[in-house]
Amino acid sequence: MAILVTGGTGYIGSHTIVELLDEGYDVVIVDNLSNSKIEVLQRIKEITKKDFKFYEVDILCKEALEEVFKTNSIEAVIHFAGLKAVGESVAKPLMYYNNNIVGTLVLCEVMDKYNVKKLVFSSSATVYKMSDYSLTEDSELGATNPYGNTKLMIEQILRDIYMSDNSWGITLLRYFNPVGAHESGLIGEDAVGTPNNLMPYITQVAVGKRRELSIFGSDYNTHDGTGIRDYIHVVDLAKGHLKALNKTLNENQIEVYNLGTGKGYSVLDVVHKFTKSTGIDIPYTICNRRPGDVSVCYADSSKARRDLGWEFEKGLEDMCRDSWKWQMLNPLGYE
Ligand code: NAD
Ligand code: UD1
Fold first, then answer.
1. N or C: which end of the chain has fewer CB within 10 A?
2. pTM (two decimals)
3. Looking at ligand 2, which atom is closest to the CA of residue 270?
């Protein structure tokens, strides 16, 4: 029996596959390579010394997806495949609703047809209305852009599927800010174009691809005026998926978990820690706030600790060091 990983050549998917293979799971990957490179497969093999199946398939293509279910014995699905750039989703809402929502509908239809009813889904902290600083799974929901709406809508669709058929087991994981890379430096986040997120921008400044970091606002109500987020090492996040998978395989229910560290760091905290752990100065300028940003956002992850037995192990220094190692060894990403 194998675990099907959709979006498995992407950033979080590739790190989760390493953990799955290390734990002895059989893995089948489906990805259309719209935001990832085929080279990642070799890198995963190099790290794990294990083999797995890969299908270049778009999950919107039902026939191709059915072929995967017909030719493999799938036990459960970890569903990463989706588009994730907030700004792009505002510009191209139809593309986002189609890819993320229709893609998930097609996947669930095929799962249902082949009687595979165990699913772990990549949701996001972006589904929260951000009316509290420390967010529990019960905090108020409300997305502010099409990307976030797709996550909220998919969560609702999955709840409705479970309500209609209690033999499903579904886990919704709301990630906070994944950063870092595998300690080997062989896999990491291959940001295409100008990075939107903080850590890839910092590493591109460090490697000389960008001149300086723009810090979006220094007048927030925080200890140094810059925005605070809950950064989580991608390997800790990947391990959270294994804990979630284990529970999903054994229980027929729908549950939601935050995956964050519960620790908030400001933009300047990250810049200073990066310099401390790598010895590289990051030049920066203070700019206006980025529209749509909140001042502070971090997770209350006590539910994941309690129910999944998951605990993060890596701190901000590990996140900075591993992000840098990946960037330094792969200045052009997987190219
Ligand atoms: P990623 O872009 O690196 O990986 C997603 C993968 O899905 C890519 O390899 C892409 O080619 C593939 N894909 C997209 N549409 C597809 C389709 N229709 N058919 C087949 N494959 C398709 O992104 P990531 O950072 O690894 O994120 C994985 C998931 O986690 C996404 O659903 C994302 O929304 C969610 N998430 C990410 C973050 C983050 O900060 N990285 C935060 C919260 C939630
Ligand atoms: C972004 C996404 C969010 C997604 C999350 C995790 C937006 C509006 N939100 O949020 O949907 O779930 O990533 O992937 O894109 N910063 C700078 N300079 C930069 C980049 C960022 O100062 O060049 C600051 C931001 O203002 C913020 C912090 O760094 O205070 C973190 O930013 P980022 O990495 O983009 O994450 P989020 O804002 O949490």
1. C
2. 0.98
3. 29
